[in-house]
Amino acid sequence: MESEQKNGVENLANKRHVRGWDFPLRFLALALTLTAAVVLGVNTQTTQITVSLLSSLPPVTIPVTAKWHDLSAFVFFVVANAVASAYAAVSLVLALANLRSRKSAMAIAVAIADLLMVALLFSAIGAALAIGVMGYEGNSHVQWKKVCTVFGRFCGHGIVAFGFSFAGAIAFLLIAANAIFNRHKKG
User: Fold this and answer.
1) Where are the alpha helices (DSSP H) in 102-151?
2) Residue-level pLDDT, tens digit, the chain, 187 residues
3) Rounded to an integer, what distance in angstroms lies between the CA atom of residue 124 and that of residue 40?
4) Euclidean distance between the first and the last CA atom of the chain, given in angstroms as a whole number
């Protein structure tokens, strides 16, 4: 009898411990994806490029600006992270509201939306990272030159934003895994 009570208390404590990860992970996902969107969303750098038109003329210096919204992959990245951070805020409120009622349909809908955020973030990271690698490495086949040698700060901010977004995607993945684990334990 005593062992049954002890096992019941241990199971209850384990369920609370596993459910307890939901809120910190949601808050972490919110902070990371919002930070990624802001870091890349305010990213801009202007530099002077020297161009020589003719050998008999002196070189001309032209200001050139790199902006995040010049590349559609970066726009997708910023919008995807903004959507994910807004969803994280809404899901945090829903998780708090669902804490007392424990509605199964809402929990499943939130878990599916969590998985959608994982897919959205990983696709945005992949698209933006592909363009980032192109800027860092260049592409000799299409005669694209390396631009990160000229716009180093811009590229550095992009790398930081990609890291924050990747960590946010992992946080959403852990949230989804936690939800699946909790559903499995209930069954």
Assistant:
1) 104-137
2) 455 555 544 444 444 444 578 889 999 999 999 999 999 999 999 999 888 888 888 889 999 999 999 999 999 999 999 999 999 999 998 877 766 666 677 778 888 999 999 999 999 999 999 999 998 998 888 888 888 889 999 999 999 999 999 999 999 999 999 888 877 666 5
3) 13
4) 24
Q: How many CB atoms lie within 10 A of CB 9?
A: 10
The answer to whether 121 and 168 are in contact (CB under 8 A) is yes
- CB under 8 Å to 36, separation ≥6 — which residues? 77, 81, 161, 162, 164, 165, 168
Q: What angle do CA 132, 163, 140 make, to 5 degrees?
A: 15
d(CA 109, CA 161): 29
CA distances from 80 to 58, 60, 146, 169 (A): 46, 39, 26, 11
If DSSP codes are grouped into helix, strand and coil, which group holds residue 28? helix
